[in-house]
Structures are given as C-alpha cells and as structure tokens.
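Supplementary material to the annual report.
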Amino acid sequence: MKKKIIFFLIISIIVAYFGRVEKEILDELEIATSAGFDYKGDQKVEATAVFPRINPDKTITNETLSTTANLSKEALREINQKSHKPIENGKLEVAVYNEKLARHGIEDFIDTFHRDPSIGSRLILAVVDGSSKKILEKSYGEFDTGTYLQKLLEHNMAHGIIPTSNFHLFLSAFYARGMDPILPLLELNGNNINIKGLALFKGPKMVMELTEEKLFTFKSLYEELRLAGVKLKTKENNETEYFSIQAINSKKKFKITNVYTDPEINIHLKVTGSIREYSGENVDATTIKKAEKLLKKKISKESAEMIKRFQKKRIDPLGLGEQVRSRTRHWDEKKWEEQYKNAKINVKVEVIITEIGVVDGLS
Amino acid sequence: MKWFRKGSKQEDLSLYNLIQHFTKSGDFIHFHNPQSPKPYWISYYGSLVDAEIVHRDILPYLQDPNISGYEDFQSAVPIEKVEITSDLETIQKKMLAGSVLIQFSENDNKGALVRAEMNKAREVSIPEEEFSVVGPKESFVESLTTNLNLIRKRLPIPQLAIREFTVGTLSQTRVAVLFIEEIANEENINTVLQRIGDLKYHQILDSSYIAQMISDNENSPFPQLIDTERPDRVAGVLAEGSIVILVDGSPHALIGPTTLVKFFAALEDYFINWQLASALRVIRLFSVSFSILVTPVYVAVLTYHYELIPRDLMATLVSSRSLIPLPPFLEAVILELTIELLREAGARLPTKVGQTIGIVGGIVIGTASVEAGLTSNVLLIIVALAALASFTTPVYKMGNSIRLIRFPFLLLAELWGLIGIALAFAFLMGHLLRLTSFGRPYMEPIYPPRLEDLKDAFIRLPFKMQPKRPIELQSPDTIMFSGKKAQEMNDIDE
Amino acid sequence: MKVDLKEQFLISPSLAFFLVHSMQIGVGVLGFQRYVAAMVEQDSWITVLIAGATVHVIIWMMYKMLNKEKGDLISIHESTFGKWLGGALSFLFMIYLIALGTTVLRSFIEVIQVWMFPMIKTWPIALVYLISVYYIIAGGFRTVTGVCFLGVVIPLYLVFTFLAPLEFSNYRNLLPIFDHSVKELALSVKTMTLSYLGFELLLIYYPFFKKPETSQKWFHYGNLFTMFLYLYLMLITLVYFTPDHLKRTIWATLTLWKIVRFPFVERFEYIGIASWVVVILPNICLAFWAASRTAKRLFHVKQKKALGFILLLSVIATPFLKDRQMIDRLNSLVSEFGFYFIYGYIPILFVCYYIMTKVRKKA
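Predicted assembly:
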C-alpha cells in the first residue's frame, strides 16, 4: 500500500511536470473573428486581423491590427508581434480578400487555412471590392466587424439572395471536377457594408463578377431558394408598376441528353412564390398571371445570358460539369472542358404564385 | 484480581471475587437484606437496570416467606426467564447487559439472573436523510430490538431469518444479519456471514464501521453498501433477495449486494407513478453527471479549448472573467473549496445556525467575491449548481463520493483539457467495472448488460412489467409474483 | 487440447458482439476513408461491403477450428505444428499484438498532437493511458470486456453527430455507381480490410465464453454492425467531400465534425477526439490483454508480470516514433502483417489443422 502511494505520487509529479501543455486561457487571448488580406504589389499582402475587445460591462469594441508581409501565415505572426496578447485564429468567422488579391489568386491563403486544424469549416470567405482593411476597421453597431459580417452574410444566405457559401463548400468546389468556386462580393458604401454581387472563380483566381440584381436567378439555378425576394418592374399603359415577389422555394431538374457525344443540358426550373407588394391598384387573377410571366421572363433571360458568359469565360460555377459527370461512365474532364464552351444549355422556367398575403384583393 | 477474561485462570475466580471487583465501579449496587424472611444479596449496575422492574417485579417476591431457594424464586418471579447459573462468563455478560443477580448467600457460587435492563430508546421518528413526501414516515432508531420490530411488522413470515453476532472486543455490539430464506442467494448469505464473523475490531459505534470493514474494496471512494434509515426500504430489498445488516446503536441498516444505479433510486420512486418516477431518475442521473463534469469542463474549455465556445457565449464568459487575476483552474478550486467549506460548516453547526451560515455564506461571500473580482459570476453559478446537483442523490454517502471524485477530474482537466477529462473518465470506468459488492458486479445492469434489470435502473417501469427478482441478486426463487394479466387488451368500447 | 477456465471468469456469449466491434473500431475510423477513396472514389461504399463480407468467411473458419479444438491459438498451433514451431508462431502473434496496441496508442497521440496540443510530449500521455490500461487489465478479462462494452455504448451518441454534415452535402457525388475496374476494386478491398482488423483476437479469448460455440452468431452480428457503421460513415463522407478534396484530407471523420454546430458548443472535433480516448481504450486493453495472455500460456509466467513488462516496453517504444512518416510506416507494417495473417495464414492454418487432426485420428 505504502509503495503504491509513493509510486502514484512520483508518477503524478513526473506527469504533471513533463506533460504540461501550452495554455490558451480564454481571457488572455486576442481571439480574431475576422481576417482581411489586401494585395500590396508583388508577393506582398497586407493582413488585417479583427478582434473584439470585450469590456467588463459587456460592450464590445472593435480592434484591428494590420501588417504587411509575404505569406498569410507569416502576416498573422507579424501581427502577433504588435499585439500585447497572443492572437488566435480558432474563432475566425469571416475572411475577406480584396478583389485585386482574388484576381491574383488566393491559393496560398486557402492552403494555410485548410492545413490549420483550428479553422472551422463554417468560416465564411468573401471578396471585397476596395480595401478589406477599410471595411474591417470600421465598427458597425453593437458588434465587432467579424461578427457583424458573419451575421450579415449568414442571414442573407439563409433567407436572401446570396448563394450559400462557406469554407467547406468553397473547398469542395475548388477541388471538384466540373465545378468552380464562388464567393460573395462585398463593398463599403458609406457607413454600411453592401452586397455587391458574386465573385466567380476559375480555380483559385477570380475571373468574373456577377452583379447583385442577377443573384436571384443565380441562386435559383445554384441551389434552392428560401424566402429570397425579388423586385420586378413593368411598364404598362405608360405606368410603371412594381412587383415585389418572395420566392417560397424553387426546384430544378436536370435533363441531359447525348452525354457521351455532345451533351445538351436542359434545366427545368420551378419557382414558387408569393406577392408581397404591388404598386398597382388591385391584386387579381390577371395580376398574378402577369407577375408569373414577368418573373419567368426575367429568370429565363438572365439565366441564358449568364450561362453564355460563363461559357465564354470557361467557368462553371453552377456545377453543370458535375451534373454531366454523375451521369457519365468514365467521365473525361478534359473532353468536357472542350465541350462545355459550346454546349447547348437550355433553361426552362416555370413560375407559380401561390399566395398573395393576408389581404384578399381578388374580386 | 482481574475482570473475567476468556482464557484467564478459572481457579482464581469465584463469584464473590467478581462481585467484589464490580463494586469498585460507582454505579454498581450490591446490598444485603437480612430482614427479609430469607436473607438475600442483590447486585446490579444501577445505570443499566430499570429500577421500576426491580421494585415492582423482583423485590416483592424476595419478601415472600414461601421462597426458600433459587428454584422457588425462579418460578415465582413473573419475568420470562430467570436463569440460575454458576458460569462466571454468563454472569458477567448478563449483568453488563442489565440483569440483576440475586444470591441467598454472599459466598454462593451461583445466583439467579433476572433481566431488568433499562430500555431508554429514542422514539421512532420521521426519516430525515431519506425523507419522502409520500409513503411511510417511520425511520430506524438506535435500538436493535425496535428496528427488528419495524422490519418484522412489514414481513410477518417465518422465512425471515435473523442471524446475530457480537462484534467488537470492547463494545460488544450486537449485529444482526437479515435475509429471507429461499429468496436470498446462499452464496451471498455465506459471504456476509463469513465476513462479519471474521471481523476483528475493538469498537463498533455505527453500522458504517461494519460497512467499511466488510466492503469488497476499502480503497474505493464509492460506497458498496447502501445505508438506509427506512424500514420500508429494508423490507422492500429483503423481498427482492438482498441481505440486510442491522447494528445495535445505529439507526442505519446496510443493504447488499447492491449496484451503482440503486444509489440513484429513491424509495419515493416506487410510491409515485412510473412515468414520473422514471423522469425523476433521469433528472437525478443527469444532475450527477452534471455535478461531476461541469467544473472540469469549464476549466478545460477556458484553459485550452476556446474554439468550442459559441460566439454569443464568448462575450459573457470573457466579460465575466476579464478582471479576474486567477487562472480558471485556481478560480474553480477556490470556489469548490468554498462551497465544501460552507457545506461542512453547515453540517457541523446546529440546524438553525447552520441554515444561517448557509445563507450568509452563500449570498454574502458569493456576491462579495464576484464584486471584488476574485471569481467570475459564471463560475459561481456553475459551482453552486454542481453542488446542488450532487445533493440530488437519494443516498447521502453517494453524494459525498460524487463531490470527491470531481477533484481528480479537475486536476486532469487542468493538465490536458478535454483529453484529461476523458482519461479521468477512463479511470473511473475501469474502477467501477472492477468494483464488486459482496462479489457481485457493481455496474450491473449496465455491465454485465441485463435487460431484465434495466427495467428498474435508469427508469422504473410499471410493477406488473417486473415480475422477476433482480438477476444481480442471483435469487434461487426468480419469480417475484405471477399473476395473469388483469386486463386483456380490449377493443374500443367493449 | 481444451483450455479450462473457472466459471466465474467466463463471459456471456452475447458479449462477443461488443468484443469484436470495439476492437475493429479504433483510430483508423478517424481517417480510413481517403485510403479507400484514393482508388475507387465514389464506389468506396461497395468496397466497405465486400471487405466486410470477406471478414465473415474468415470468422467462420476461425470458429470451425476453435470449436474443434476447444482451446485458443496457442493450443491450435501446438496440436498442428508441435511444441517448438507452434510456440514460435504463437510468439510471433504475440509480437504482433504488442505492436498493434502500441501503434493504436501512438497514432491516437499523433491525432492529439496535430489537432489539439502541438506541444505535448508523447510519453507522459502514453504513461497515464497505459496505467489506466494496466488497472483495467488487472481486473481480469471480465473487466476488459466491460470496457469493450462501455467503449461501444457510451460513444454511440457520436453516430448522430455525423448527420450534421448532410446539410452541406451533394448526393450526386455518389454517381455514377460502379465506375471503376475490378482490379481497382480488389485493391481497395485489401485496403479496406485493414479497417476490419481486430477480430483475430478471437483466437485468444475464445475459451472465455460460456458455451463458446453459441458466441459465433454474436460475433457475426458484431462484424455486421461494424460494417454498417463503416458504410454509414463512408456514405456521409462521400456525399460531403468531393473525391479530390477527400484525397487531401488525412482525418476525414474529424473534418466532418468541423461543421457541427450546436447552440452550446461549436467545433465538435475537439469533443470527438476526447471521446475517442474512450473508443480506443478497448482496442488497447484487448490487444495488451491478449498479448499478456499469450505470454502466460507460452512461458507459464504470471500474467500480471508479463503485462507489466509489455506495457513498459510500449511506454518506452512510443516516443521513438517521432513523425508522421514513421507512424505511417509502422501503421502499414502492422496492418500488412495483420492482413497476411488473416487472409493468408488463417486459411493455410485451417487446412493444415484439418489435415493434422485427420492424421492424428488415423494414427
């Protein structure tokens, strides 16, 4: 018994001494919620880290530190030198890159994040038109910028027009054959952050931009719409009328013919929605028909245009290649890339307005 | 001249010498009455004997002129058994248990022993540790006879067997082992009888002495025998096939073999309907795991794994901790110790003062230490809740074990965060798996997995679904009751 | 030769289910997907099924031999090959068991080092872990089985957490089915069988069952359960990762957890790793128990002493395996040995044993 106790004590002391691990005590860290990277000439990046300073009275102040360095990881280390507490990136919510950097390629930055086990898969990446430093340095309301950006983007993905995107989905698209990644594009507008549109990538490089008006169409083709709103304008009898329509859901079906020779892709898109606002006098059966027609026209026109542009730039953000791949045995990626440029892609749209709100305007 | 001891030389001893020796004690009464028709010597311990019995039932018969010898006296006295003996050992033992010795000559080597012990026992009162709102409200007292009476009343069957032992070289404590023949497992009975028979100790003050000495693993922080103050619980487990140990002078009965989950079953669970009882048990088990794990997890997460904290919670945690100079581990240890201190102080003080201490300590110290910036208010809530949760265990001793094993978890959490907690858990798991209670596995019915016994473990299913005795107890008579289904499943409106 | 054991040390045959399952599920589960997917990509789930089926055949063979012998591997060896050659083969098996236990422990510590504590030394954690292993094994086979049981039941809740990644998965990743050659499939089956290793320990603990013949059913069920678990994990992994993404992910299972988010906890992989301490406990306990049991049977030494020696050896060995390459090499070495032992040696032994018993009967 005595021997056992002595053995136990010695083991505990040895283990406690040699087994020590570096501590990361919550309140002794600067926990970055957002990081921004700006292109600063050849091989140079300016990195900005945002971390909330949580005061004892529970208010949050937005603090930023930035530094210029070569690689992203190195930049973060150099920021550490400027901070009085170690900066940790385990709670990074949003990472933004400025457009110049995105056009130059963000492969290295993605790789660093991918390699780091402390980066979560729900990290949201975004591209900024202008300087990411400027966006991050501003404070918005009661939150720090990282939280604010994350909340802004997440809710717009859930019930808005931004296609769902996070670090995992980016990587999936990045590594997928027959698909190219997309990221939301933001801009600073006065004191607010604006969703400018979508940055479309070819591999690690941004090659194209899609404006905000087209996001409704894009999202309907990219995934399912959930409560996304769209505004329609029509001129009738010299009177401009506005519709505001909220998509309740959307469904798409792919039909691909001639997979092995010359694939022709037919997309059947069905959007169900409701009228939220109408500037005209009465909502009746004809108005509904009108709205349906208008929306159908808008989506058909935009999607055809959009896909043409994609084909021209040889990018495939909609994952059409993926659709073809999953229907082909021994799919050849090279061959598809050749075919894609001139592939026939048709979008057939069907719009159904089911609800008109709680006011019955039918008469 | 020495006291009578086993093995001492018989020749030196005579009854006269023994009595002379007893008279050295201030409370020993030894007097001669030469006036009575037949002169007699009477001797007894005044502190052990009920004077009323002596005056009412013994002395008047000694005055009777018809009595001429011990046999006459024996038949005259209206007391169940008057023993005439010359065995010194018996005489000493009986007199020390409250018998009166009557001699008709001081030099006689024999005498008549009349039982006249004083029975000053506490009245049977309401259970305090295992109080339940519904159900019987009797609890054991210090007197073994009363306790046996409380049990026999509930089990009026001849099969209820009681084996008595005397344990303790100095205390001479009566220990009774109770079981129901043909229901309790033979092997279990033998284990208990043998372990109690082998006990060597000078003094047994309470049943917990026995519990510690006969339990399978003395080095375990977990109690391996349930102690209860409720006769109804005892009757209940006897009928299941358990063995019960009662100790004179102790208001707690010991129940074994037992399992870990039984420590979380309150007797009240059987008095309320099964859905409610099951819900309460689940709550209890949850609160126990909460109590063990919550402070270590707090320390682990705040020291090593900030990534785990959801963002919205982060602000609360950081702001509560931002002014605190201590690392989370020390903060937690200090608070845990404070709570233990309050509990200990409350337990040692008289009830009324104890309550005040609890309130003063809890509120004043808690609030003040948060305001002074010594502890964070989040941790204060956590520690207080954990302490509260540990009190939900129906068996008091288990609650203590729960509070104790929290500290190794805390240490390992400080060392290796969540990995440390998992390692502590691995140790705990191994320990519990190795534990036995009277040779039966402690973790049953979890391991070995026994579905039949799980019906009354984490949840309690209705009585009619449990017609069998627990497999754990290995009863030779496995069926508890058999009866046809009272209600057949009927169709609607039939 | 019959191996006789006292009734009180025997376990119920139904526990065979947990013994086999807990031994098969180990550190390998954290990252088995990419090795299989490297060859057959979206068809990996078929591989899982085929490999599981082959294991059933081997189990049947082992039971055939053991039922006849009513003993363990050591007695089979002795009656087939005689005392010296048989003993040498049993000794080799013992070395394999020690290496197996050590590899599992070292690989798990590597996971801790990569994901949680880069600074932690190998030996203190190995020491503490093996002390708990010693404590458990010292309780006898019943306690070891108990750990196997709880090591399966307690972490079972983790199964549900794998449903979270489905939010971001693409079911088309599974298509087209059967898009790989038979050769590729066969090679991947070989890789996959390594994940099923661990059931061969039956050869040692067989005599510990009450009515051992009846345990075969449960043993098969256990393997079936492992198969379903692998299938479940594989399917989720395949729909969540695109093949090229998966090939770059060393610990796919852990990466799956990165997406889990509860209101009270984020980044589930840390909890997953901590839970894995309990999951691999049966692995290590059973391996070292079997090794020390073999030592006892071979050299007639006290099992406690043999166990102490083996564990000491393991504690000393772990720090010498320094980096990813070495661990990987040891891992493949041990699993190669296991593979050839099971698919090469056991069928040979099966035939030899039957010939020898026939010869003996005639003689």
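Chain C has one domain: 7-362.
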